[in-house]
Amino acid sequence: MRFFVRSCVVVFFIVVVGTLGSLPVFAANVPNSSKDILGKFDALKRFSQVLDIVERYYVRDISQADLINGAVKGMLQGLDPHSTFMNAEEYKEMQETTSGEFFGVGIEISMENGQVTVVTPIEDTPAFRAGIKSGDIIFSINGQPTQELSLQEVVSRIRGPKGTDVELVVIHSDAKTPQTLRIVRDAIPLISVKSKKLEDGYYWIRLTRFSERTTDELKDALKTAAKECKNSGGIKGIVLDLRNNPGGLLDQAVGVSDTFLDKGVIVSIKGRKGNTDRVYEAKQQNDDVHMPMVVLINAGSASASEIVAGALRDQKRALTIGERSFGKGSVQNIIPLSDGSGLKLTVALYYTPNGSSIQAEGIVPDVDIPFETPRSEEKNDKDNARIQVREQDLNRHLETGKEKKDTRKKNEKDTAQEQLARDNQLRMALQMVKSLPKIQEIKY
Q: Could you list the residue range(s) of the whole structural domain that residue 135 is in?
């Protein structure tokens, strides 16, 4: 999530070890506040001693800056899986993932006990095409074990110039032995919204991530769909697909939710201190969308995806179906530091409109429908048997000519039918969104 802190806070620790070590401290005779201060100085003294010992005696020469950076990384990684320190290059890369073009293989990852775990591959990326899926564990990158690396270092090594390759040793969650994959890096698409007509008036809108233009892209897709079916009665229903969407920017999650809501709470965030607490509410807009909706989620739906699904579910605006979501309900502030580096620090938790925490719980769908692999693909794809990793498992196109247009329309129809044939969750979502008006008429 993006909360850019505009000012930088730089803390300087000056530790005079010798003098501090000779102070005659009688802890029992000082106020509690003084005890706290002295306790902090004791900890800083210990850090300074260890730093000095490593600088003097470690088998390899290593700079003090590298040692301190490593210590800061370790401190943050010990808090939870999402807090981290980023050097200047890593901080720049992080910004590119939401605002510019970057190159890599296209996966969202997390780390648990030193194991790099795939939360979800980004659709239409090299990793997606290579068969990497949610729950896979990455053991090494170009021969270097990932246990030796921080999460941000893993990201930096997987990324690289377009056209170059990276070797990943991966164990699929339904396999017993690792597999070596050589994947060619490519530009990772930042177009986050895809739309397809399933039947006359019924559209499948898929959000692959929440980047800076997601809300605008969604509204453009809805306008295109409305124009396309204007002569046949307009849009009758929408299937909003958030499956395997790893999340992204909080403001975009709010924007997407507000597109379908005209009032009420979308999400609230609560931290240790009141100054981090905020409530985001929907506002009535001229382009609010009111047709029946079904939201699709699964274990790869995380963070911002869960905010949208939770808001639409709690507000009784949409029916959610699929599988329980990932459960990443924490808020990270992105804090820039004066030297170009930055911190990603967990500062609060998300709560859905009814007050439920997403953290380690996820969004439980209204209708639980596990994904079923088509029989024709069972030998090659055992997705239905895969382990689904959730937060609770973590510790801490240009065309011209009528003929071409007609061919495209035919192909789009065929593609939609093929997709429905392969995807039981999407089939059910279409059936449900078509039935919602009748269901809502039932009195009980």
A: 101-187
